[in-house]
Design brief:
121 residues; globular; alpha/beta; two-stranded antiparallel ribbon; 5 helices
Length: 121
């Protein structure tokens, strides 16, 4: 079973993501605080990360850059979620995410993106 780590400071969004993804056959771990991202990656070895951009006092784009910069984690696909940032700005950054989904997200778009990036990983 493929493992997905969903990171968002909104517990309702985490519950929705977990429900949708588990219903589609994925093992889902959730995390409400980006400070523990690398601890959780090391412990659970996710196959894909879904990461909110606005994580309280943290920026998910910076966390994505850090994931992509580390030898141990650079191959993990990262999908960024956000209700307030433009896709073009996110796509131009160093350490690009593998995909971007705007909130509110369409379930089919989310599942299609997850499937596409897990198939490529």
């Amino acid at each position: 079973m493929r493992r997905i780590l969903a990171v968002d400071d909104d517990k309702d969004i985490l519950e929705i993501l977990q429900f949708i993804l588990e219903d589609s056959g994925y093992e889902v771990e959730t995390l409400a605080d980006g400070h523990f991202l690398f601890d959780r990656i090391k412990k659970n070895h996710p196959d894909l990360i879904i990461l909110d951009i606005m994580l309280g006092n943290m920026d998910g784009r910076e966390l994505c850059r850090n994931v992509k910069a580390k030898k141990e984690t650079h191959n993990i696909p990262v999908i960024l979620l956000s209700a307030s940032h433009a896709v073009t700005d996110t796509r131009k950054q160093n350490g690009n995410p593998d995909d971007f989904i705007a909130k509110p997200f369409d379930i089919n778009v989310l599942l299609s993106s997850v499937e596409k990036h897990l198939a490529a990983a």
